[in-house]
Design a protein that fits this description.
This protein has seven helices and two strands; from the N terminus they run H-H-H-H-E-E-H-H-H. By secondary structure, the chain is mainly alpha-helical. InterPro entries: HTH_MarR-typ, MarR/SlyA-like, WH-like_DNA-bd_sf, WH_DNA-bd_sf.
């Protein structure tokens, strides 16, 4: 009879260790452009998706609204994004500015250098496999994925 193989250790701890190491790698490179990875990611999402409501940006980035608000504040203060009134009195719209596009373009070169260095260090096949595994896990952990699962 085959023995049942069980994972050892805490998955959360292991993933957080990996994420800290990867974040340090990207942050060191993006610091050369005066940004943190979270700021670069926000600028990139707003450039690609905007103008859009903060709630829609938070959903696209899979982050909660309060975290988004806190992370947007320095970008607004730097003049890289604007928060303008939205279509109704209660909504706002996030838009990247020309200065924000310039900053993102500058940072993109550093992001690419960080990505290429990580690819070289880990090997392209491992990075591709990691991306696929993360995507699969994200889908399985998505609450919408499990809606109605009990109905089967």
């Amino acid at each position: 009879m085959d023995a049942v193989v069980k994972p050892q250790g805490c998955t959360n701890f292991k993933l957080r260790q990996l994420m800290r190491r990867v974040a340090q790698h990207y942050d060191a490179e993006l610091a050369k452009a005066g940004l943190r990875t979270t700021q670069y990611s926000l600028l990139s999402h707003v450039a690609r998706l905007g103008p859009l409501r903060p709630v829609d940006l938070a959903a696209a980035m899979k982050m909660d609204a309060s975290t988004l608000t806190r992370n947007l504040r320095p970008l607004v203060q730097a003049g890289w994004v604007t928060l303008a009134p939205g279509p109704d009195a209660r909504s706002r719209t996030v838009t990247i500015t020309a200065a924000g596009r310039d900053k993102r373009s500058q940072a993109q070169r550093h992001w690419r250098a960080a990505q290429e260095a990580l690819n070289a260090r880990l090997g392209p096949q491992r990075v591709i496999a990691l991306h696929a595994l993360v995507d699969d896990c994200m889908e399985l952990l998505d609450p919408a994925f499990h809606e109605g699962a009990d109905d089967e």
